[in-house]
Amino acid sequence: MLFNLRILLNNAAFRNGHNFMVRNFRCGQPLQNKVQLKGRDLLTLKNFTGEEIKYMLWLSADLKFRIKQKGEYLPLLQGKSLGMIFEKRSTRTRLSTETGFALLGGHPCFLTTQDIHLGVNESLMDTARVLSSMTDAVLARVYKQSDLDTLAKEASIPIINGLSDLYHPIQILADYLTLQEHYSSLKGLTLSWIGDGNNILHSIMMSAAKFGMHLQAATPKGYEPDASVTKLAEQYAKENGTKLLLTNDPLEAAHGGNVLITDTWISMGQEEEKKKRLQAFQGYQVTMKTAKVAASDWTFLHCLPRKPEEVDDEVFYSPRSLVFPEAENRKWTIMAVMVSLLTDYSPQLQKPKF
């Protein structure tokens, strides 16, 4: 039996800042799926094709619908355990992973640098091998991408990047699910990044073109994205026929953009640079003046936590802001990542049109 769901966007609710999915979903027998991600690492989205990333978003929507909308219990990870290594503090990454893994029947184990000998009294190689013998996967939030690469090389279980200095792939999955729910399709959207050339921007650059999305990014001089990431992003844009614009002018990046995106200007570990960075980022605050040059259907994203100098209250708390649905979707997307890397589950929803 097929179950049909149509959630219509209520204009009054939208004005009050409540955003809902606008899509027809059909739930029935599991659909045949050609994408198989079981056993893979998720270190960066550059290692995944467009179809593979779309599959993770499809699975995210499936889990969200079945668990949140239908109230089903899906113990897909029963009997499995997850090691969670955190060198940096976290709200959304920790809560989404810990609660999501438990909701699927698994057992998450939270570990800080005070709990384990990560690269101090024990080498990363030894830690990877020990964790491989005791857990089914590891999510690591670390300072250096190279540490993730070492863990992945030495571990026999999937390693997931919970954030590094170079990439933050699980955040971008949540961003894309949020945009998919709001716009019903990602192809043809123009993403306007205004801020630092950091791990969030890098992850967008490694994936947006694979969906047919255009990217216009403004960063201050001296804070541009990594050169090797830029070179690969230019290749992706050429292969997929999309536009990639890198500029130092925030209004140029915002011009015609469907989605205005920013992030913290001062990441963890950069506190000593605060005064210098605040000065360099003058004029980069997202305001209604920024939005005036954007597309008429513009929305706003920020991965949080947010500081007022990055985006003013008028934009951040406006009906156009999707930051809180974006935050919730961290849970559904990380659950999909875990399920796709650890099981053979296939989504039961009709595949969305990306």
From TrEMBL:
Entry's InterPro entries?
A: Asp/Orn_carbamoyltranf_P-bd, Asp/Orn_carbamoylTrfase, Asp/Orn_carbamoylTrfase_sf, Asp_carbamoyltransf_Asp/Orn-bd, Orn/put_carbamltrans
Could you state one GO biological process linked to this protein? citrulline biosynthetic process
Q: Name one GO molecular function term.
A: ornithine carbamoyltransferase activity
What GO cellular component entries does it have? mitochondrial matrix
Q: What is its EC number?
A: 2.1.3.3
Q: Which residues form the Aspartate/ornithine carbamoyltransferase Asp/Orn-binding domain?
A: 187-340
All copies of the Aspartate/ornithine carbamoyltransferase carbamoyl-P binding domain together span 40-181
| Location in the cell | Mitochondrion matrix
Q: Where does this protein act, in terms of pathway?
A: Nitrogen metabolism; urea cycle; L-citrulline from L-ornithine and carbamoyl phosphate: step 1/1
Its assembly, as annotated, is: Homotrimer.
Recorded family membership: Belongs to the aspartate/ornithine carbamoyltransferase superfamily. OTCase family.
Q: Which NCBIfam families match?
A: orni_carb_tr, PRK00779.1
Name of the featured protein: Ornithine transcarbamylase, mitochondrial
Q: Which organism is it from?
A: Pan troglodytes (Chimpanzee)
